[in-house]
Amino acid sequence: MVFDEKNLDHIQLPQASSQTDLLDFEANVAGVSRMMALLKPVAVQAAPLVVSDIDSRLTDTNSALTALKGADGYPAYDKVDADTRKVLAQKMQSLAEAIGKLNAAVGLE
């Protein structure tokens, strides 16, 4: 999926939704972090620049998410202003693009 403000702003949620989109993003970033922790020992040998790029973008994306988290957790997604959602979408897209380079960089394509 392409993460951009259009896709994220048009997520159709049921009326009773808990608006936990930011928790979902956090879980996705945590999953990517875990994946990279497992792959890094092998991938860094074959593609150190790609791994470094992914690490950098992970840190950047995680920082953006953490900045939104308050003492009571994340706000409802619809309470996050449009500019912040756009920046977050760009960071998520940038991370996805960096991850997309990994297979070819380690010779799996």
Provide key terms for this protein.
mainly alpha, disordered N terminus, 109 residues, single chain, elongated
Helix-strand blueprint:
Elements: H1 5-9, H2 21-46, H3 48-68, H4 82-100, H5 102-105
Give the N-to-C terminal Cα separation.
20 Å
| Approximate strand percentage | under 5%
Q: Return the string of H and E elements.
A: HHHHH
Q: Name the helicity range.
A: 55-70%
| Alpha plus pi helix count | 5
Enumerate the spans where pLDDT stays under 50 for 5 or more consecutive residues.
1-7, 10-17
Q: Indicate the structural class.
A: mainly alpha
The Cα radius of gyration reads 15 Å
Q: Biggest sheet, in brief?
A: none
Mean pLDDT: 84
The shape, in one word, is: elongated
Count of extended strands? 0
Oligomer description:
single chain
Summarize the structure in words.
With 109 residues, this protein is mainly alpha-helical. Helices cover 69% and strands 0% of the residues. It has helices spanning 5-9, 21-46, 48-68, 82-100, 102-105. It starts with a helix and ends with a helix.
